[in-house]
């Protein structure tokens, strides 16, 4: 990413605040419209941003949220409890109900919105950016270090897994076969995770020896364009999302629930 492109991005603290506010709305407001709007917003963000390909974002959403849609449709659609239900299809003891599908859709929308938001943030972030975001929000250094280290584990794990598979292939294993890869993966991952945890522990010891946390808060690793506008955006998003959740808890937010949609459809 060029410096000019990086300067056009939001400050990492702003991105993190927007992510947390979106998740708060998804799980704090009991209306299917909220996760639907958040998911649509994440899709638009993935389409217009320059540091992420829409295809990669959509594929991540499909792989992670697709099985969830099938599972909740089967569980809620076929086995929704209750007698006062509207049956859409039945075959023997199994029956698909409108109420079950409504619950399944709302559950899936929440999970899909969460995955879409997290993927939008994660594809454009790295360990240094996450650490700088938390430093900018004045979060504890230990929390910032743990989150940044977790972000750093994913590409490292992927790289070492690829190297280990290549080494197995050089020893005669047919790593192009899915059955062989599944057979090798548990042993490879267990060894890699152990090595990564040891490496993280060594890094933490090295940081403590250098006075991590005992000196004034470190400066950001990079320069990020910011200003009064982004500060206003962070505070507005935090206060606005919190107010919406409080209004929803007090039943003062005029947004339709899944039951309201069913009443409109079936009277």
TrEMBL record:
It holds the Pfam family CbiQ. Keywords: Cell membrane, Membrane, Transmembrane, Transmembrane helix. CDD domains: EcfT. It comes from the Bacteria. It is a multi-pass membrane protein. InterPro entries: ABC/ECF_trnsptr_transmembrane (IPR003339), ECF_transporter_component (IPR051611). It is found in: Membrane. The keyword Membrane applies. The chain crosses the membrane at residues 16-45, 57-80, 86-105, 112-131, 137-157, 232-253. This is Energy-coupling factor transporter transmembrane protein EcfT. It comes from Nesterenkonia rhizosphaerae.
């Amino acid at each position: 990413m060029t410096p000019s492109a990086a300067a056009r991005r939001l400050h990492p603290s702003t991105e993190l605040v927007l992510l947390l506010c979106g998740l708060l709305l998804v799980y704090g407001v009991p209306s299917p419209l909220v996760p639907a709007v958040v998911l649509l917003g994440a899709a638009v963000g993935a389409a217009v941003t320059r540091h992420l390909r829409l295809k990669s974002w959509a594929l991540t959403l499909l792989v992670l949220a697709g099985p969830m849609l099938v599972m909740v449709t089967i569980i809620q659609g076929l086995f929704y409890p209750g007698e006062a239900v509207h049956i859409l299809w039945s075959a023997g003891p199994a029956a698909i109900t409108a109420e079950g599908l409504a619950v399944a859709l709302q559950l899936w929308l929440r999970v899909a919105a969460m995955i879409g938001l997290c993927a939008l943030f994660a594809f454009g972030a790295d360990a240094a950016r996450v650490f700088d975001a938390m430093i900018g929000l004045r979060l504890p250094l230990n929390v910032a270090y743990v989150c940044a280290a977790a972000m750093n584990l994913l590409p490292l794990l992927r790289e070492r897994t690829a190297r280990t598979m290549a080494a197995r292939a050089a020893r005669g294993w047919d790593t192009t076969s899915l059955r062989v890869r599944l057979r090798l993966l548990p042993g490879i991952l267990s060894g890699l995770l152990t090595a990564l945890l040891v490496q993280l522990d060594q890094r933490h010891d090295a940081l403590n020896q250098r006075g991590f946390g005992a000196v004034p808060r470190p400066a950001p690793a990079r320069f990020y364009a910011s200003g009064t506008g982004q500060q206003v955006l962070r505070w507005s998003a935090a206060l606005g999302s919190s107010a919406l959740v409080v209004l929803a808890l007090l039943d003062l937010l005029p947004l339709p629930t899944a039951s309201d949609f069913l009443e409109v459809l079936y009277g």
